[in-house]
Fold this protein.
Amino acid sequence: MLSCVPILSPIEPTKVAHLQRLRLISGTANSALAQEVAQSLGSDLTPVLCKRFADGEIYVQVQESIRGCDIFLIQPTCGPVNDSLMELLILIDACRRASARQITAVIPYYGYARADRKTAGRESITAKLVANLVTEAGANRVLALDLHSAQVQGFFDISLDHLHGVPILADYIEKKRLSDVVVVSPDIGGVSRARAFAKRLNDAPLAIVDKRRQAHNQSEVMNVIGDVAGKTAILVDDMIDTAGTISEAAKILRQQGANRIYACATHALFSHPAIERLRASELEEVIVTNTIPIAAANQFPQLKVLSVATLLGEAIFRIHTESSVSSLVS
């Protein structure tokens, strides 16, 4: 049974009984984050057996009754992406067959989100395909964090609550009390995210890095739109994958006269050769969240990891008690 914790609003007496139906289940992709979410709610994770057979097939068994319960499955579809995604689908199916009342897929990082449109002939819109798979597996609802593009929300035919990492990242930057801050979008597509970040920093000025992408995971930075000379530049993006965009953007910001350069991103994919690039970059600090687990080998001196556990825990609590989530989204 859940107990009330300080971050949550007081629980109405009529809802106390309903809290007994809430169950948190974690996949193997980021069990540390799931445990933090459970702690923020004063709860425990429901035990699940998850293993791989010799041929790589995934086996899942929920190890206690969840009949009539509200299930929140916490599983980012991060690397290995296909294994994490398949495990999520099997977990959803297992909970549906165990007669769960409602199943919410909590996906802190939504893989395949970048395949959200056709940029050439005969391509798959994989972000939509994954949304269909999650729905067909039996999820009733999705709770996601910083989807790569807004249109992915429309790919789901079930309810979706979309949270943002900007408040967590911006609050951290604000507490550093940096002077002459300019918020920088590393590309045109991220301007709305950078604008929201700048608004939280007392309407800091905005700059944009104009880039030309040559191929997947490759980009060529061209120039900076806006004044960054003598300022503290805060690069803001939704993810850092191979770090090509961020490191090249930091380089041109330095060339344009920025005194200090920080990078903020919700999702730390850190695919090779990201760590080498970030270590050698002009960045004073790289601030990310724990939506994706970061291996010890991928730690480096400039790295700062912030937790999204309390945010996810609050959203789960509000969804379960049928309270408004809108104040967490804004």
